[in-house]
Amino acid sequence: MPVLPKPQFEHTVIKHDTIAKLKSLQPSNDGCNVHGSAETVICDFLDAVGYEEIAREFRKVHEMYPVVVPRYSRPSWRS
Q1: Of 1, 3, 54, 72, which residue is most buried, by most CB within 10 angstroms?
Q2: CA distances from 78 to 2, 22, 47, 69, 75 (A)
């Protein structure tokens, strides 16, 4: 049975909720834990908008390489 797309309004609410969750993580100084939380938020977003397969494959990568150590605290390029 084909999956019907969610209404545009629902996608907008999900998008804004996801952005709010990611912004709430930004002030934290807890690098790896925040990164893991952000991964969860992104995967939840992908699940919610119908990209469960992408989220599932991304989670497999995380299972193989669970610890992420940031190389730089800030990007090396100028913003």
Answers
A1: 54
A2: 45, 22, 33, 21, 7
- More reliable by pLDDT, 27 or 71: 27
**pLDDT, tens digit (0-9, with 9 covering 90-100), for 4-62:** 566 666 778 899 999 999 999 988 777 667 888 888 999 999 999 999 999 999 988 87
Q: CA angle 50-31-69, nearest 5°?
A: 90
The answer to whether residue 50 sits within a structural domain is yes
Query: What is the value of pTM for the model shown?
Result: 0.66
For the chain, how many structural domains are there in total? 1
Domain hosting 22: range is 8-64
For residue 7, what are its two tokens? 């209404």
